[in-house]
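User: As part of a screening pipeline, I want to sanity-check one entry by hand. Below is the sequence and the SMILES for 1,3-dihydroxyacetonephosphate. Please return the complex as structure tokens so I can compare it with the automated output.
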Amino acid sequence: MQPEAIKNVAVIGAGSWGTALAQASAVAGRRVTLVCRDPEQVAEINTRHTNSRALGALPLDAGLVAALALPADVDLAILAVPAQQSAAALGVHGRMLGGLPVVLSAKGLEAGTLRRQSEILLDLVPTATPLVLSGPSFAEDVAAGRPTAVTLASPDGAMADAVAAALAGPGLRLYAAGDMIGVELAGGLKNVYALACGAVEGAGLGASARAALIARAFAEMARLVVALGGNAGTLTGLAGLGDLTLSCTSAQSRNYATGLALGRGEILVEGRRPLAEGVFTAPVAQAIARRQGVDVPLIDAVVLLLSGRAAIADIVSGLMSRPLKRED
Ligand SMILES: NC(=O)C1=CN([C@@H]2O[C@H](COP(=O)(O)OP(=O)(O)OC[C@H]3O[C@@H](n4cnc5c(N)ncnc54)[C@H](OP(=O)(O)O)[C@@H]3O)[C@@H](O)[C@H]2O)C=CC1
Ligand SMILES: O=C(CO)COP(=O)(O)O
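Assistant: Here is the complex for your manual check:
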């Protein structure tokens, strides 16, 4: 496929990330339909050219329209709902996606089934071509056109090249890649480690502890990626090091901010906080690691923290008293 053949893009999910990706695609010259599920939101986007629920007063590109359903002439779809909602959204829209390239932009693993986003797509729409978009990218930055670079991974290399070129614009640069498993795991796992890093700050454990955590998270992530057939080298790129750095050091990350609250001793009330994907992904990642026989002490620590069954001081002391081992 040539990039010019990608004229019509549909984005499913009108939250902050879906709206930002729709905006970037419109700026890149595509005709974009943002698929919402609220008629009032559709009316606001089409008349006032804002999506206030997702991105406040940010003016949206005139080439972006909203609708309640996918149009018939879509060349490329982008799925941008929370990871635990991807199967439900595909249940509604999947029959329109047969044979199409579908960009998966959620960062998370599915509870219960332990599926990655591409596995969910291929189970529900076997003829679709999956492409995974991940990397350091806050919706607010992408929507405002601030310089952002991400990875776009697919086993179909020519498709990844074409879609990367079709979505690239003055503020968004996409690097095509082949290791979809590595990119998907990196995107999901960084949220778990961002929770941990936020907790370290919230508990006042110091910048040295947070840096050590990031480095050991990187090593842990590599073990899991390799065990699942991915390439550890992928983690040196945008989806690995890039996103881990962003999400583990910025309170703008909802996962980091949630960890910060936990570290300060606050109790999480379901439905009362912004989306923090790591809360859902942590137990799934732990289950996958157990299945593969991979040692993941940091993921275990986050699961324990989230369970509320141990104080952060005890969790940290458990980590620090593990048997010493070599780093090389
Ligand atoms: N925000 C960011 O900076 C980034 C987010 N991501 C990832 O993108 C994903 C989405 O995050 P984000 O946009 O921030 O989340 P938001 O909470 O901002 O928005 C979620 C959106 O998904 C919609 N939605 C939920 N369930 C369904 C469903 N079953 N069918 C259709 N639409 C549904 C919601 O609709 P409604 O409003 O009607 O409930 C809402 O518009 C996450 O996996 C996140 O990790 C990745 C990179 C950056
Ligand atoms: O994935 C993101 C940045 O790359 C957004 O992070 P949060 O979901 O933690 O806000």
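Points to compare against the pipeline: The domain at 181-320 is CATH 1.10.1040.10 (N-(1-d-carboxylethyl)-l-norvaline Dehydrogenase; domain 2). The chain has two domains: 3-178, 181-320.
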